[in-house]
Every structure is written in structure tokens, then in C-alpha cells.
Amino acid sequence: MSDTASKSHGRKSITASLKPRSLMDGPERLARAWSAQVITLVPDAFPGILGHSLTGKALKDGLWQLDTIDLRGFGEGKHRNVDDTPAGGGAGMVLRADVMGRALDHALPRAPKGAPLVYLSPRGTPFTQAMARHWATRPGVTMICGRFEGLDQRVIDHYDIQEVSLGDFVLTGGDLAAQAMIDATVRLLPGVLGNEASTEEESFSDGLLEHPQYTRPAEWHGRKIPDVLMSGHHGEIGKWRRAMSEELTKARRPDLWANFLNRDD
After folding, report:
1. For residues 199 and 79, what is the distance between their CA atoms, to the nearest angstrom?
2. In 3D, which of 29, 26, 37, 32 has the Cα closest to residue 11?
3. Domain shared by 176 and 235, yes or no
4. Helix pair 129-137, 175-186: axis angle to 10 deg
5. Residue-wise pLDDT tens for the chain (265 aa)?
6. 224 in the same domain as 178
């Protein structure tokens, strides 16, 4: 394995040590920071969008930490091969069990205790706001970004890996999905948004879609902001927003509406 198998993003807490840097256990850990560890074939794709806006600021401020592990560093032979043809025949290539196993044996001892181990797969459990909230209560997450036709099933079974899907579509790899899921989770961490109320009022927070939003100017292309929002009557504003959330959810997401109606049953 090469010395560049792991790369860490975010602020570092450096402490003095007599132990040579080459023998230290991976990147420095930030005290109490939520930690995302990503096994990927394209580590240079990170932090990507996560390095911008509020998540980027939180990364620089040490509220969370991102460590990428280059799967190629654990590959076989001179060319560091990480995949092979599917057993039984078929198109495409499959990530090898021995290669991913070595990567996981490197990553898991460095993961914070209690961090979920996730494989990003189109056949996994759909990712939801509730899952993001759960991950935000954990010390971090370790993610495997799939490529090609997927990952040898024996790895998933051996390490009891949770499969999670971003949606009912197929990407060229799990890296974009990883960034989306990390973003959804990091923004829920204390101190990241700066306004905890904003996460309580947005879509999916209570099982409903968010109500419509408006701002200046008061009239645009002949369209006015609803009078109730300009009334200053917070009770009526709250009722209007709730009614609009229910109306939108019922019309656009009957599945969410059914779950909302049945949640107390």
C-alpha cells in the first residue's frame, strides 16, 4: 500500500510525538469532530462541493472531518488492479473482495466507534432525512463508493455492510451520492447552519414537504406575495404554511402523505 492511500481534509489538531510520522495511525483526528471516511477510486473528487458554502466553512472550522482512502492503493499487482470479470459471466467488472477487504481493514480501525459502515448501492435502502438525522447523532460514517458493476457480495456479507441508495437511478459511481449524503448530514450538526430552527421547518423535517417561500420584491411580474405573509400575524402565517405543506405533500408525494397520516397509528 502506498503512503498516499489516505488523505484528510479539514483543520488539523497537531500534537508532539516521538513516533515517526510514517508509523502513525492515519491522519490526525479532530477532537469531537464528526468524521466522514470515504473509500473511493477518485479521491481527488473530494471534498468537491463539500468544500464550499456552509459545509466547507464547517470543514475549515473543524466541526467535521473528511478522510478519503484511495482504493487503488490496495490493488493487486504492478497495475494495482481492483476489479475482475463477474463470476458466471456477464458485462462489466466487479470490485474484488480481497482488494476491498484490505481497504476496509485499513479504514475500520481508524473509524470512530459507533460510526455506520455504508456501501452506496442502487439496490440499497433509500436515503432519507431521517437517516441523515440518525447519522448526525453518530460520531461519523464510513462510506464505500461503488464502481463498475458493483462490489463482491462476500465483502458486504462479511463486514455486515449497510447498503444505501440515493434514488432509483444508476450513477457511474457512488462518489456523487456520498457527497450528497454527507452534505445532508453535516448541515444537521450543531453549529453548522447557525440557526437550528431552519432545519426544523424545511422539507421532510416533520414528514411533509416544505411550504412555498417568498421574499422581496413584494410584487414581481404581476404576482404578489400572499397577503397573509405580509400581515405580521404569526399565528395565521403558521396556519397558512402548515396548510400549504399538507396540500403540496398530498398532491406531489402521496407516499409521504400516506406515511404522515399513518405515523401515529
Report:
1. 46
2. 29
3. no
4. 70
5. 444 468 888 764 333 333 333 333 445 668 789 999 999 999 999 999 999 999 999 999 999 999 999 999 999 999 999 999 999 999 999 999 999 999 999 999 999 999 999 999 999 999 999 999 999 999 999 999 999 999 999 999 999 999 999 999 999 999 999 999 999 999 999 999 986 646 566 667 688 999 999 999 999 999 999 999 999 999 999 999 999 999 999 999 999 999 999 986 5
6. no
CATH number for the domain spanning 257: value is 1.10.1270.20
Residue 150 shares a structural domain with residue 228: no
Q: Which one, of 79, 203, 92, lies nearest residue 150 by Cα? A: 92
Packing angle of the helix pair 53-60, 175-186 (nearest 10 deg) = 80
Q: Return the residue matching grid coordinates 477487504.
A: 101
Residues sharing a CB contact under 8 Å with residue 75, sequence separation 6 or more, in sequence order: 81, 82, 99
Residue span of the structural domain in which 216 resides: 212-262
Write the burial class of residue 22 (CB in 10 Å: 0-12 exposed, 13-18 middle, 19+ buried).
Answer: exposed
Strand partners for 27: none
Backbone dihedral angles phi then psi of residue 98, each to the nearest 5 degrees: -70, -35
